[in-house]
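Re: Re: token formats

Sure, here are both.
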Amino acid sequence: MSAEMPARSDLRERTRQAVRAELVTVAWELFVRQGYDATTVDEIAAAVGMSQRSFFRYFSSKEDIVLGKFQAFGEILADALAKRPGEEDAWTALRRALDWFVGGSERDPRYGLELLRLTDQTPALKARRLEQQTHWQELLAPHVATRLDPPATGANDLRPAALAGAALACMNVANAAWVAGDGNQSLGRLIDEAMRAVRPSAF
């Protein structure tokens, strides 16, 4: 019985994740087709054959469908930074950690363009996206601290948060230019340009 129960729990979790993924896919199709504000929770739920009540078992709001992506992005970025070679300085490691975003966007720019346009055009989502990025800064700062010379000296040392925040600001500037160019420019090159504006000798 004890071995059977964890297996059932794993199956339930896999089923839950599959349903969440389907809801995200369907919701994005509706957002892109008819706009975020014009899309209701009822429509999203109906499109996958469930009730509104069932929808709320998986997401607390339609905002969470969009913003859940940004929470995951921050965790992936922090993990990418933690895995960079130890000999890289903090600024270079931050730039290389952003390659995860660059790779996906340059292989298929459509999703990234849709995500950024949607959040830029919806004030509530844009505010929440910036709020999420403040959390990203908090996730990145400890990994930046280990790469500083001289080493960071604790909570009163502003360098880790300042560098993480500056890198994210450069990413935002590059993203804006990339969206304005309809994804036809290299996002990696734009991030390089933005980050070299802060540190001209970098990479």
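Second one below.
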Amino acid sequence: MAVSERGFVVIGAQFVFFSITDLRTLKEIERGSYPVAIGEDIYATHEIEPETVDQLVVALQTIDRLMKDYGVRDVQVVGSHSFFEAENAQFIRDQLQSRTGLVVSPLTLSQESFYRTQAVLGKFPNFNQVTKDGTVLIDISSGSAELTAFADGDFGFSRNLSLGPLRVFEVMSDLQRTVPNPVEVMRDFIDSRLADFMRLLPKNQHYPHVILMGSALSVFSALIPTGSDTVEIDRDGFKLLYQEITHASDQYLSEQYDLTPTETAQVLPTVLLVYRLIKSLNSDEIWISDLKLLDGLEVNAASEAGSKAVNIDSDHEILISARNLAERYMVDPKHRDFTVKYALQLFDRLKKLHGLGKRERLLLEIAATVTDIGAYVDTHKHYEHSDYIIRASELIGLTAAEQRMVATIARYHSSDTPQTDLSDLTELNANRRLVIAKLTALLRVADALDASRQQKIEKIRVSLQKDRVLLTVTASDDVELERWSLRTKGAFFAAVYGLPIELKGKTRL
């Protein structure tokens, strides 16, 4: 088996999906799924039951044997956010590792959103053409709906709603048996959850196109039979389907569409949820896609491997997400862009000193972008507010640890000096604390270079000398305030890197 071939496994709320993919060509050698309804356990009892764990073990062992039969050694196994919603998820994760040898990595909601975006960017037919107008990607799993917006062919924003059909069904199941019109009650429940999302949508932006994807949409393969992986339907056509489903009995749906009892129970909340979303967005065209989170893992891995089959920038959506967060909290764009520019220049020109890589450079760029968002709450100790806002926000594509690192870098970029070794951050390991310290030191220097908030510095030359780091700048005005600020903030740089940093500048006449 070639080195370029990799295995992927996703433990979702109702299925364990897997694939073996050649990253050079993005062609799947094998793909399949095993039904394991952990979502029913989680939404009913908040825990994964022992019988379900046994089913998971059998599925993973079968998949593992298949991977070995193909000679695949590199296998990525992830658990969806739904899996880790279970109160006993960490125990189950340990049990799965001891019984199968497979390590299940957790995904945050923002990571799931990132991988779904990668899936449509890499695999959805004519994606660039479709998204020239406003388009919303709606990924519906059993427990949640992830909405990702595109405008002018580019990523806009992402929001997660705890509003999957199985969750709706479990919440509403008791009520459905006691009210005369359960459809209206379910509709009102869904609308109440959509209200805040609609309020946060950008003003004056129309979304005529909707792309539906996700594991919960498997019911549509029975409701709208087709030989294609992607189905297009207009709003009137979907309205007819909605009217049929909302007036049909469970027995009719089961017999008419050959559905299992579990599938039948999810038809109404799934169709109702999609219809209310389409109506709220006032969309005209709907694409129902078979793309899943699994596809995003494949596309991202191929992109990171430098595959010519994928022509996307994996970091692009992450940086747009950070910029959107900065704009939401009204960060000064001129100071933000200045800080980002010179933080990255320092990173690139001092690589021999810090020894960090591409991913750490991305974290620095994100931190420099969002570092001042806390000023929206209060300019006094704004860095403290930045810390908790970043931790509570959805920064697409970051792991939970990376998001915590970005928040900490923002927390310490200002005058609040941390312990030099950051040993108080016990939730982060020593390697991550070292990365935080190195990036914080660089960000402090970049921030100090615009202490006046007038962007006086036009050009910078970085010289790594035996006894110091010398910054020689060309500026449009006097830089004494910047020099003073660097002396203050540069102390942490010297503590981290073992060299003082000095500013030498001349004013352009």
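The chain has a mean pLDDT of 86. The chain has three domains: 5-107, 125-290, 316-507.
- S.
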